[in-house]
Amino acid sequence: MLHIVKTDQALTEACRVFAPQDEMVLIEQAVFAANPQHHAFSLLQRRKVAVLQSDAQARGIVNRISSNVAIIDYSGWVDLTATHANSITWE
Q: What are phi and psi of 85, to 5 degrees?
């Protein structure tokens, strides 16, 4: 399952059902959680997580994204979507 997460509140909800084989893409306001100093960063530990580059750039935090989090472009997002049979968007 690919979890597409838009907010840090939605991140909390998504983590409740996240399975070991799942992956997560942080978009919109959720990209802030990829900063190790963010209060929700601990939720990302031991999970396969990516951040949408354009959203991180728009918020000026690309240089603050953890090295444990992949930074992907739209093509990378399409690739992730294609590798998962199902996806869910958390708002």
A: -70, -30
**pTM recorded for the entire structure:** 0.96
Q: Give the residue extent of every domain in the chain.
A: 2-90
43 secondary structure, DSSP code: G
CA distance 64 to 60: 9
CA atoms within 13 A on the CB side of 60: 0
Q: pLDDT by residue (tens digit) across 8-64? A: 999 999 999 999 999 999 999 999 999 999 999 999 999 999 999 999 999 999 999
Class (C level, CATH) for 2-90:
alpha beta
Query: Contact, 68 vs 44, CB < 8 A?
Result: yes
Number of neighbours of residue 81 by Cβ within 10 angstroms: 12
